[in-house]
Amino acid sequence: MRYAVFVLTLVLMAGCQEQTAPGPSSPTPEVWTDGHAAAWDIMASARLLTLITLDEAGQPQARILEALPPDSGRFDVWMGTNARSAKVREIRANPRATVFYQIPDGTGYVTLRGRALIVDDHALKDRYWQPHWTAFYPDPERMYVLIHFVPEDGEVVSFAHGLEGDSLTWAAPEIDF
Asked: Which of 28, 63, 132, 137 could be a cystine partner for 143, CB 3.0 to 4.6 Å?
């Protein structure tokens, strides 16, 4: 029940996002393809994302998290979470992960495949902290950590940008980082 309330709060409060930080490896806007531009637009407008990690048996585990705004033209994704959560254990054991964004009306999506890292740096945690998280992290110093996701590649479909899957295979246009 507490998780359901948390997700509902994320949906209602996601407009309160303000913080950003640079990522290490993503392309800059000067070298973006049409796919990068479409992916950026979808990510920038998203309120929620799905983080997919692998559990100890190799089974994918999907969770909805608040989508913090992408930063400075890079595609690194930052998320806040509970330091004791299963996703933190899974990322520490196997950093391979996928992040998925969907346009609510179903006219596009972005899938990013890459690596995640758990970050417990005080300055970065302060930078990404969202005031509405206080209810979920009464002791943020101990309870709250960041997930830093760095994409390696992905795919994007955006009808608004004229990017659709292949007419025969439905394979989505790929993007590399």
From this structure: 137
